[in-house]
Amino acid sequence: LNITADPARLCVHQVTLMAQCDFRQSVECLARNGITKTAVWREKLDATGVADAASILRDHGVEAVALCPGGLLTHRDPAGFHSALGDNRRWLDWAAAIGAKSLVTITGGLGENETDLRFARDRALEGLAMLVPPARAAGVRLALEPLHPMVCGNRSVISTLREANTWLDQLDADDVMGIAVDTYAVWWEPDLQREIARAGKRIIAFHVSDWLADTTDVRLDRGMPGDGLIDLPAIRRWAEAAGYRGPIEVEIFSQRDWWTRDPDVVVRTILDRYGRSF
Ligand code: ZN
Q: Which of 52, 132, 177, 219 has its CA 20 to 30 A from that of 230?
């Protein structure tokens, strides 16, 4: 399989234009550059309001493929845990209201003064199991996204696609649970090709950015595809060999570079790289 630049599959996450654009401006920028898919960032949606956001998307012919991020379920205290579950039920309804088919879900990291990683993992898995019925009711899938081990402490207590696959085996709810493969998070994983094949049809999101050799911040210094160390075409081919035919989603957090540039320049650079570097 060769990688292709089918314009209908290209998706640019709202977070890629996080610093420059509000909700409407980001959708306008994508639409005027011929991009028909985005993933909505919860903070932008909250600022605009769900009803207005839905009409902005509709008016510009831009589809929200997902809402990001949900989850954050590692609270030890029952009140915090139940409030997090309530937040997720609300986000599932928001996702449904803007036509998004999935809520990208991260586990959350360790709580304040917490060192019990095993507890945090068990808690997050427990929380995911409790979100299965509301996700089913909302008609929105939970796309579990493992993140890079450097953010284990504050964003995700699972770091590998292997763990995500094992959790989905345990949850046994593939009608409503899926996996988001973020190349930036799992590119280093020794058995990545095998775990992508194992995930198969569970892969419902495919996030792309690059790992800069001189990165200054593992969370907020992601690179433009083609500027770093990740063999993005190879990972995309593995996902497609596993059956993935969904959107190719550019998700760049870039405080020192791309967030400082004109949004049209960012989007035109993505278009230029698409089909070549990712
Ligand atoms: Zn991602």
A: 177
Q: Are 5 and 275 in contact (CB under 8 A)?
A: yes
Closest CA to 127 of 175, 76, 186, 174: 76
The 3 state secondary structure assigned to 147-193 is CCHHHCCCCECCCCHHHHHHHHHHHCCCCCEEEEEEHHHHCCCCCHH
251 Cα: distance to centroid of ligand 1 (angstroms): 6
Please tell me the distance between residue 180's alpha carbon and the centre of ligand 1 in angstroms: 7
Ligand 1 centroid–CA 191 distance in Å is 19
Distance 254 CA to ligand 1 centre (A): 13
Measured in Å, residue 258 CA sits from the centre of ligand 1 at 16
**Please, is 251 exposed, middle or buried when counting C-beta atoms within 10 Å of its C-beta (0-12, 13-18, 19+)?**
buried
For the chain, give the percent of residues with pLDDT over 70.
99
Within 8 A by CB and 6+ apart from 77, the residues are none
Closest CA to 224 of 277, 182, 188, 175: 277
Give the pLDDT confidence of 195-210 residue by residue, as tens digits.
999 999 999 999 999 9
